[in-house]
């Protein structure tokens, strides 16, 4: 693989050539954000122009009518006090869930297992819209969103599509993610002159990475010609 950063189109041409026999492999995006002392990890979600088809495994804390609505909306596991107790006692694993909701009624009880849900990025929070009594609408809205968060080194790793997708489709998803990351960075970035996004790379899963040339104008990747 090239050792220097490339325009997006050139990078995709190379990856498609390398992976010609594996067109259904997932293409991954890696974004290095600038770390500043005292800043919290970057966490967010974004609606992609071309959604990545994946069945979201929902864990929902609700009871009564809200529980029935959650099940009807496709939630994998729905429960209330008994489920919370099982999780607290270590008798129920939350490792296979992608997203989590709680009704306002049960939220005070859910906070008691925050130490378990938090590390899995599953802890419901009011400011994220995951503590709600409008279960059905929230599941519909968030099913189409891609969630992401940075690690302790400032890297964000996420899937963005398939190798077989067109350059336009892949570029659209990358742009949407980068814009959202950049917006999140504005809220916690004290150094306005330095770029919040420092590096970008893409690779097929189980494959080598190629670094991308990146300009502040997220709408324009250098030397891009849509194919």
Automatic annotation (TrEMBL):
Cellular component GO terms held in the UniProt record: large ribosomal subunit
Keyword terms of this UniProt record: Ribonucleoprotein, Ribosomal protein
CDD domains in alphabetical order: Ribosomal_L1
Pfam families: Ribosomal_L1 (PF00687)
Homology family: Belongs to the universal ribosomal protein uL1 family.
Keyword Ribosomal protein in record: yes
KW Nuclease (keyword) present: no
SUPFAM superfamilies with a match to the protein in the record: Ribosomal protein L1 (SSF56808)
The organism's place on the tree of life at top rank: Eukaryota
GO molecular function: RNA binding; structural constituent of ribosome
Record-given protein name: Ribosomal protein L1
One of the GO biological process terms: translation
